[in-house]
Amino acid sequence: MMEINRNSIVTSQQELTRSEQSSLTKQLKESQVQSEAPTASSKVTMQTHVGVSQEHIKIAEDEAKRITLAYVDVMEKTQSALKTSLDEFDKFKTEQASKNPSLDLSDLDLYQDKEGNLKLSSDKLSASQLNDLETALSGNEKLKDAFTQVHSGIVESLKLKDSYQYSDLNSSSLNGSIRLNELTEQYSKQFHPEGFGQEYKTLSERLNVDAGMFGHFLSEAMNPTIRTFA
After folding, report:
1. Residues contacting 84, CB < 8 A, separation 6+
2. Could you tell me what percent of the chain has a pLDDT over 90?
3. What is the C-alpha to C-alpha distance for residues 81 and 157, in angstroms, rounded to an integer?
4. Average pLDDT of the chain?
5. How many Cβ atoms from other residues are within 10 Å of residue 146's Cβ?
6. How far apart are CA 195 and CA 53, in angstroms?
7. Confidence of residue 173 (pLDDT cuts 50, 70, 90)
8. What CA–CA distance (Å, rounded) separates 190 from 203?
């Protein structure tokens, strides 16, 4: 429903003659739109492009398709990169747990510093222990490349949604603000047991959904804010 502010309407103070009134009444009757309640099977459409040339409509449609295809492509790459990151990080933790059985790696998480180097965080390990683990992790280029792609994919998806708002954002802008396990946990929480995506029960199933759903839930996992650093 649209509300009209009647105080903003400027009316003419000039009185119409009887002949003019009759003519105006006739025009109004002839231009009257007859409304009809649609049946259950009928489609209600609204034309929003009145006055827009077919050429401009085609350009807008092509641009919308281009953005959609680009977004799906970015999300597919990001999805693959996230799965690779998790697999490589799990392998690293398993290897380190085997070498150092006394280490508690239950809350070990991964992030990148401002230079893009892989860093580790944990409330259960000392700074010295974390430093030793980071040294062992530093040579894992597969993990580094995959995790960097996760950062890049998130930035690219944001720019495709709003190129103006995120024009100054790049993959390094998110360094330090994304924790691999934390992000994955928040992503998994988007699959509500009685809501959208409820049929996907395991993390593996949730990471292998179609790119559109993956992008939507990943975006929700980044909310309410994405902390960026200059």
Report:
1. 142, 143, 146
2. 51
3. 14
4. 80
5. 22
6. 42
7. confident
8. 11
